Amino acid sequence: MVANPHLPVLLDLLGVFAAAVAGAFAGLRKGLDLVGILVIAVASSLGGGMIRDALIGATPVAAISDWRYFAVALGATAAVLSVTSRRMSDSKLKSAIEEVRGRAVRLDRIALVADALTLGLFAVSGTLKALNYHLPVFQAALLGTVTATGGGVVRDVLVNEVPMVLQRELYAVPAFVGGLLFALLERHGFVVQGYLAAAGSVVITAAIRLVAVWRDWHAPRPGAVA
Asked: Where are the membrane-spanning stretches (predicted)?
């Protein structure tokens, strides 16, 4: 396994931060209040890891047993709210909320990049934890995919949208590619304490996702059924 014991937690916490940022923007776009935004951000950033840990029997799950997970999610949410409200006027509350929402829409590109990084980070962290629990390469990559997409599914359901993994540009495919690449590199020893393989796999996963959005790539869709 990877020599550095801090790598799995580091990847997880970076993924939690990126996912909370994307979740906070989703809450802002839906016009939720502060509590609603926090719920969306925390659920989307911790959901995938909780599903992963439950599936492999790593209990109590890290998101509950390690205080850093919730703290990072809370900090990321606070950072988004601070940035989006920095230029908020001192007018009435309703007008202020509308200004925050408008700013959130203008920052959609940041949310997209955050979501792509979330996909890459959780794909690798999920795969790594599965390998540490002695799962074969292919199954480990599948678990990495579940980790990467699980939080996004929770987020989309909570904001009453069809989960992105089911209906938009390639989403699960980049996560699986990144997880499988990392698993193969790690198993064959082409790593520097895991960091090189992890960084490369995260970047490749995020890049495939962003190019898929840019080029509007989709999986084949069947014709409409009468």
From this structure: 6-28, 35-55, 67-84, 110-131, 137-158, 170-186, 192-212
Q: Are the CB atoms for 191 and 197 separated by under 8 Å?
A: yes
Instruction: Tell me the pLDDT tens digit for each residue of 109-165.
Output: 778 888 899 999 999 999 999 998 999 999 999 999 999 999 989 998 998 888 877
- The overall pTM is greater than 0.70: yes
DSSP 3-state helix, strand, coil percentages of the chain (rounded to 5)? 75, 0, 25
Of the candidates 110, 150, 106, the one whose C-alpha atom is nearest the C-alpha of residue 126 is 150
> Which residue is listed with tokens 């601070």?
82
Distance (Å) of CA 23 to CA 74, 121, 123, 131, 210: 11, 15, 17, 28, 17
Token duo for residue 176: 């699986």
Identify the burial level of 171 via C-beta atoms within 10 angstroms of its C-beta, where 0-12 means exposed, 13-18 middle and 19 or more buried: buried
Q: Take residue 213 and report the two structure tokens written for it.
A: 């959005």
The amino acid present at 189, given as its one-letter code, is G
Of 123, 28, 16, 119, nearest to 71 by C-alpha is: 16
The closest alpha carbon to 63, from 126, 143, 139, belongs to 126
Cα 98 → chain centroid = 27
